[in-house]
Specification:
216 residues, alpha/beta, Rossmann fold, DNA polymerase, domain 1, 2 domains, two-stranded antiparallel sheet, 9 helices, 8 strands, 44% helix
Length: 216
Amino acid sequence: MVFDLDGTLIDSAPDIHAASNALLAEDGLPALTFDQIRSFIGKGVPQLVTRILETIGDDPTGPRHAALVHRFEARYETAVGLTLPYPGVVAALDRLAERGFVLGVCTNKPAAPARAVLAHLGLLNRFAAILGGDSLSVRKPDPAPLFATIAALGAVPERCLYVGDSEVDAETAMRAGIPFALYTEGYRKTPVAELPHRFAFGDFSRLPAFAAEVFG
């Protein structure tokens, strides 16, 4: 079983918001609201910075983009103090492991910050494989990172479930031909009914039973 990270297992938006505004302040640029930054999460750091620059009226194709990406990534590994797992995540991971599921993470967050926040939360050793947005030359919704995560787990797509919270995750699963479980309390902007999914849930205690039902 493979999970997205931000908006699925963890609520990292407060840390991403704080880090983004710290960088903007260093350049004398206006701060953005929490809801603005939260809506930019999910497609990786370069896209996050693109959306920030567009919102403040700067050129997202100009020289500031690469500089902000570099500076953001430099502080991303330590941007963990405000991040928490969603309610029920830890217990659900325990129950899935008890039922024999091998777990992985496939995220557009860079791999080092993904590992850093999981380690900070005491969750790193729960996952046998972790692929980030910089692990391959492509990011989700391209299905290649998901397939690579599944392969790293020693699994096959036909015996895998992908769990995510967003439009990007839904498209990734659809393009991979893998059942998708949609966590409804994350960062999606589209109504649940409009996203392709096999199962939608807002309570992590429901996930182990669903996984057992899918795979027997």
